[in-house]
Structures are given as structure tokens and as C-alpha cells.
Specification:
The protein is of the alpha+beta class. It has helices at about 75-85, 110-120, 200-210, 220-240, 255-280, 285-315, 320-335, 360-375, 395-400, and strands at about 10-15, 25-30, 35, 50-55, 55-65, 95-100, 125, 130-140, 140-145, 150-155, 160-165, 175-180, 190-195, 245-250. It has 3 domains: about 1-185, Endonuclease/exonuclease/phosphatase (Deoxyribonuclease I, Chain A), CATH 3.60.10; about 200-250, no CATH class; about 255-320. Strand 8 and strand 9 (about 140-145) form a beta hairpin.
């Protein structure tokens, strides 16, 4: 392979995938950088995969083959998904790209299966333009066909920039991936849920019949027929109940449904005010009425933000992470509160505390002094915890349970209210 070499670059080729010893994935790596070829992570020798670690970034190149003499197309896809799960490392920036031979512009069971895997790994797909184009000669003339077969996935889309450009050496367009070095990563959990808002029995029957009519029955085996029926029902559900990826907010985020609701109402009121003013229909009474509503909504928003900030303070003070705890303490203290450090603590007799038995009591006095000073500071938040024992009988418990509404959804214990 010496004729492919470039001065100053290392030429790397993927592992041979068949008896002819051919590899279709290559990479040129700058020899000034430290890199590691991770062939040890590839368990299936029949797949075209090239994995390279550079600093804290893992690049995975993929060429997903069609059906071969060893396995079907679906079996190759399942093996590819297993490899992607095995090579995933959330401590690294993951960049997965290549020719998947799955057109993202067409909803197919393979597309659906690929989306589920990437959602499970918390990967985002960044290529939005068509990556393949070819002029096909048909009976009616020449026709330009396009598809999106080449994909780029990552676990941190804020750090990756992708661009698609034309080239003359192939019918696949060139995809450039730029990795930003400096970034602030915000970890958000993802929740996959089905959107049932457009679902009803009439629409389900219509779409399912339409899909089932396309099944090719003659010369089909029982397994082929079952697969076709399963694909039709899967596509029906995906069309009527598409899956949504919802980013779950962290507890310490200032997010409140009440704040969002008040802001939307304020926006609608302002829009109505501006519309009436443009049309010349804004009388003095209507003006005072709308401004009164906006002023009331502003007060509610400020009050709700204050409650949210108090909630966030309590969460951070209860955090097991000492860094979060002490940062919040410093924010509450400001520059007006000063407490003597624990090292200089002395007992009432004036002697420095050194005994092992007295150190826990010194810690307790130290933190109680912090709480006392903070609670007396008007600019800080005040909180209290009741230690009173509440006595109740079995009849009291039964009365409270009967007062619950039965149509509420489950909580963290996953027990429905009807069961209780």
C-alpha cells in the first residue's frame, strides 16, 4: 500500500472482511498526534468497522454491507448494532459515521430500528442534506434520484459541526466533520415516549389496511409473510404514534410549568395589545384592562421564580457532592457573614481542640454556627425542618387514602392510585 502514502501521515485500513482480504475503510492520521487503533473492540470480523481514539474522542467509521453469502441483510444489521453498543463509551466524545445503507428519507423497519438504537445510546444524527445522488435513465427519460445513506452520530451535538459538499470522484457527497476543542458539556437524560395524540381506531384501521394491501402473498413462505405483516403493523404504529425523544430537565434547573404558562399568557396578551393598537381600536378602558393583566402576570412570574430558586437552594444544600454544597453556602453567605475556620476552634476553656472524641462535636458546633448565621441573615433563604412526631391511627390512614383521586398517574413507586 506504499503508493497510497502521504508524507507525515499514517495510512490505516480496516480489517479484511472476506476471503479476498479487502477493506473498504481507510484513514490518514497526522503523525504529530497520538492515536490508538482499537481493533481489539471489534468482535465481528465480517463487518467493516474502523475505530480510532484520539485524545478524548473516539471516531468510529462504518460501512454496513448488504446481504452476503454468510448472513442476510437483517442479520448484518443486528451484528452492527451489537458492535456499536460494545464500543460505546460515554466518558468519551463519540463520533460515529459512515455509509449505513439506510435511507433516512424513507420510513422503513430498518430506519425505525436504527433510531431506537441511537436513542438508547443518546446519540444525535447531524446530517440533514441528501448524501447520495445519481442520474437514472428510465422509460420516461433521465431522472435524478437522491437519498440520505450516509449518517453522522454523536453523543454531544453542541461540539460537532457537519457540512455536506459535492465531489466528482463518487456519487456520494463529501461529509466534513469538525470537532470543537473547547466546550461545556451539559448532560441531560433522554426519555423515549410514543406520541398518541393523533391515534384513533378509525385512523388505525385505515392505515393498517393500506399497509397490509401491499403485502406480496404469492410464492411467499410463512416466515416471509409474518415478517411482512409485522413490518406493516410496525409502520402503522410509527405513522400514527411516532416516538419522541424528550430531554428530561435536571432537578437543579430553573424550570416550572407555572412560569411557562404565565409567560405564554403574557405573550398572547401583549400580541392582542399591539394588534388593537395598530388597528386603532385600543380604547383607554381596554388599554388599562390589558396592562392590568400583564402587570398581574409579571408579579406571578416573579413569585414563581422566587419559589423555584428556593427549591434549587434546598436541593443543592442536600447534595452529596461537597463542591455543590459549599458553592451554594458561599452564594448564601455573600461578603457579610464570617465564621471562624474549624482549625481555629477552641473549647469554652480556651484550649485548642485536638482530642479525637471532641472533633465530631466541633464539627457539629461549626455547622450549627453556619446555619444560625445564615438563618439570621435577611438576604439569605430561611428554612426549617420539623422534628415533631406525628401520631395517627389506622382509621386516619384509611380516611386519607379514600380522599385520593383514582385517575392520577403513578408516581416513583409505579403503583396506580386505583390499586391503593
Amino acid at each position: 500500500m506504499s503508493w497510497f502514502g502521504i508524507n507525515g501521515y499514517e495510512f490505516v485500513i480496516s480489517k479484511p472482511y472476506d476471503k479476498y482480504g479487502k477493506g473498504r475503510l481507510v484513514a490518514y492520521l497526522n503523525q504529530d498526534f497520538s492515536f490508538n487503533i482499537r481493533n481489539d473492540l471489534i468482535k465481528d470480523e465480517c463487518l467493516e468497522i474502523l475505530i480510532i481514539d484520539i485524545a478524548k474522542v473516539r471516531y468510529t467509521a462504518i460501512y454496513r454491507p448488504f446481504a452476503t453469502y454468510e448472513r442476510t441483510r437483517q442479520e448484518a444489521l443486528n451484528k452492527l448494532f451489537e458492535e456499536l453498543k460494545n464500543t460505546d463509551d460515554q466518558d468519551l466524545l463519540m463520533v460515529v459515521g459512515g455509509d449505513f445503507n439506510i435511507n433516512l428519507n424513507v420510513r422503513t423497519p430498518e430506519h425505525h430500528q436504527l433510531n431506537r438504537l441511537m436513542d438508547e445510546l443518546s446519540y444525535s444524527q447531524l446530517v440533514e442534506e441528501n448524501t447520495w445522488q445519481r442520474i437514472i435513465t428510465t422509460e420516461s427519460g433521465k431522472e435524478l434520484r437522491t437519498s440520505r445513506l450516509d449518517h453522522v452520530y454523536t453523543n454531544d451535538e453542541a461540539r460537532i459541526k457537519v457540512s455536506v459538499e459535492d465531489q466528482w470522484t463518487s456519487d456520494h457527497r463529501l461529509i466534513k466533520v469538525n470537532v470543537q476543542e473547547h466546550f461545556t458539556k451539559v448532560v441531560r437524560k433522554k426519555l423515549i415516549t410514543s406520541d398518541w395524540r393523533n391515534y384513533n381506531s378509525a385512523a388505525a384501521s385505515f392505515v393498517a389496511n393500506k399497509k397490509l394491501q401491499r403485502i406480496y402473498v404469492p410464492n411467499s413462505t410463512a416466515d416471509d409473510l409474518n415478517n411482512q405483516i409485522w413490518n406493516a403493523l410496525t409502520l402503522t404504529q410509527e405513522e400514527l404514534c411516532p416516538e419522541r425523544v424528550v430531554r428530561v430537565a435536571r432537578q437543579c434547573d430553573l424550570v416550572s410549568n407555572e412560569i411557562v404558562r404565565h409567560k405564554k399568557k403574557r405573550k398572547r396578551t401583549l400580541h392582542k395589545y399591539n394588534k388593537l393598537e395598530r388597528e386603532g381600536k385600543l380604547t383607554e378602558d381596554i388599554r388599562d384592562h390589558l396592562l392590568g393583566i400583564i402587570d398581574g402576570l409579571n408579579r406571578k412570574i416573579r413569585h414563581q421564580i422566587k419559589l423555584e430558586r428556593k427549591r434549587i437552594v434546598k436541593i443543592k444544600l442536600a447534595s452529596p457532592n461537597p463542591k455543590i454544597f459549599w458553592n451554594q453556602i458561599k452564594q448564601l453567605e455573600g461578603s457579610s457573614i464570617r465564621t471562624k475556620p474549624l482549625e481555629a476552634y477552641i473549647d469554652p476553656a480556651g484550649a485548642q481542640i485536638t482530642g479525637r472524641e471532641k472533633i465530631p462535636d466541633a464539627f457539629l458546633d461549626f455547622f450549627l454556627g453556619k446555619v444560625k448565621l445564615l438563618s439570621n441573615n435577611e438576604s439569605s433563604y430561611k428554612w426549617a425542618r420539623s422534628h415533631e412526631t406525628i401520631e395517627f391511627t389506622l382509621e386516619d390512614l384509611e380516611t386519607v387514602i379514600k380522599s385520593f383521586k383514582s385517575k392520577f398517574s403513578t408516581g416513583s413507586d409505579k403503583i396506580m392510585m386505583k390499586v391503593i
